[in-house]
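Q: Given only this backbone (113 positions), what sequence would you predict?
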């Protein structure tokens, strides 16, 4: 039996990724990296999370934003949502950043080959 939530009940995690994470010419690769990471992140907590990695061109925008059914959630509300799935927000974000680091390394390794 699948416990996957319907799309409109999933937590959407918009994560803005800085081009500089990909090195000095990251601006040239950030959009293709975001497409790559979107495909890879679909495998992570997909039963209750929708990932939306985007380039972070505007540093005045938050690095991470949470929403459900297009309704923006405060950090407290996102924390409550994740608590239902026995996740703690800070640990969730740390896990995400670790995964992005791995994806960056994989992406850059594939770029060189």
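A: Predicted residues:
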């Amino acid at each position: 039996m699948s416990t996957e939530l319907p799309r409109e009940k999933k937590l959407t995690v918009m994560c803005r990724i800085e081009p500089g994470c990909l090195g000095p010419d990251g601006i040239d690769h950030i959009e293709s990296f975001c497409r790559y990471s979107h495909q890879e992140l679909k495998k992570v907590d997909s039963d209750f999370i929708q990932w939306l990695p985007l380039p972070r061109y505007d540093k005045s925008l938050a690095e991470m934003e949470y929403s459900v059914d297009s309704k923006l959630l405060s950090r407290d509300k996102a924390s409550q949502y994740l608590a239902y799935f026995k996740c703690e927000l800070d640990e969730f974000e740390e896990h995400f950043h670790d995964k992005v680091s791995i994806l960056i390394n994989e992406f850059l390794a594939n770029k060189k080959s």
